[in-house]
Amino acid sequence: MNFFTELKEGLAISWSAIRANKMRSILTTLGIVIGIVTVTLMGTAIEGVNHAFLKAVSFIGADVLFVQREDWSAPDTEVEWLKVQKRRHLTIEQFNALERDLTMAGALAPLAFDELPIKFEKRSASGVQIIGSNEQLLLTGGISIADGRFISAAEAEGEQEDTKTVAPDTSAKMKDSRTHLAYKAEHVVDLENELVLAAEVYPANRGDTDTLVDSVMQAKLNVDAANERVGLGGERIEEVAADKGYHAAATLELADALNLRTYIPEPKHKHRSRWTDKPEEQRRAVLNNRRRTGREKSRKLQRLRSERVERSFAHTCETGGARRSWLRGFEDVTKRYLMTVAGHNLGRVLRTLFGVGKPKALQGISGLSAGLAQVLQVLLWVHLAIGRGSRRSGGVLLRPAA
């Protein structure tokens, strides 16, 4: 018998045995499949755990020495675990000693971990992990931070008490005493044509006096870019009108240093201002602003500001639906708001050119009439141009009527 004959007989015998014992054959096949799938899944899971572990510790680097109280591997017995737990924690004094003695080290970064409950007003959270280090962690770990900063040595030692930590996205207290994750938008509006020159979005915990000059300078950059694009150079921002919430000596001094004339009403105070502990530039800027706000020009600017700036917010936030956002992240929220403001500016341009600023305005009789008048004017111009045109190379050359 040759090989193929034996193979044929073997397959026939196997098929007969399978048909004779169907249930046993099905269970055997099912067991084999389950075993193969289980082994494959276990191998995949182990490979994923190893990859996650390597990724988690890869920031340490190959030339970094890590010193800690516990070992990397867990103790084998409970006795060894108890011995490890009795070891003392590393102190900042020991770190300072290492930093003083290890003169050949490129960077040293302490790490402190803790889990603490956090409470703010009526809200609380437990088990919040807090990690502390210094700026040399960027060198030892090869990482970078997108926002925020490390506190200075003076702040860490308590020599500087006025320390503020502000996150890019932070909770802010609203006017009705509620706490929300909120942003605030500022419009820099040209009071002549009502165009929004800059629409900046800031975290809501930043005060108006801190962001006024930043918004105006961004508007200045936008105007300069527009002038360069169209080949003009005469448009400049020279005067700034704002409400009394933006009044601050430091803000007025900075605006004066940037050659910006401010028209900001001064809020009423119970006591007179004291300038003995403040720079002379701040006093001069406040007095100059006070003198300007007493003029008729300032009152005219304030009337225009209260009308046109607030109108831009109404069109953007109420009509445009930008009062609230369902996006996450400061960058995405800013992009969404800028697109809405761009639509508002486009409406202002269309209203100047055609008398109709928005598609919705065509629902009215006056808007429809203005639109039809523009269409008829274009058709009349085309008709006259064709009538007075000349033929060249089989085509029609359109020339506007004289």
Structure, described:
The protein is α+β, with helices and mostly antiparallel strands. The chain has four domains: 53 residues, no CATH class; 79 residues, no CATH class; 184 residues, no CATH class; 38 residues. Helices cover 50% and strands 13% of the residues. The strands form five sheets. It has a two-stranded antiparallel ribbon with strand order 1-2. A two-stranded antiparallel sheet has the order 3-4. A two-stranded antiparallel ribbon has the order 5-6. β1 and β2 form a beta hairpin. The C terminus is likely disordered.
Q: Topology of this structure?
A:
Blueprint (H helix, E strand, L loop, with lengths): L2 H18 L1 H36 L20 H8 L6 H10 L10 E9 L2 E10 L4 H5 L11 H4 L14 E3 L5 E3 L1 E7 L6 E8 L4 H23 L8 E3 L7 H9 L3 E3 L16 H14 L2 H24 L10 H25 L10 H23 L2 E3 L2 E3 L5
Parallel strand pairs: 7-8
Antiparallel strand pairs: 1-2, 3-4, 5-6, 9-10
Helix pairs in contact: 7-8, 8-9
Which features characterize this protein?
402 residues, alpha+beta, 4 domains, two-stranded antiparallel ribbon, two-stranded antiparallel sheet, flat, disordered C terminus
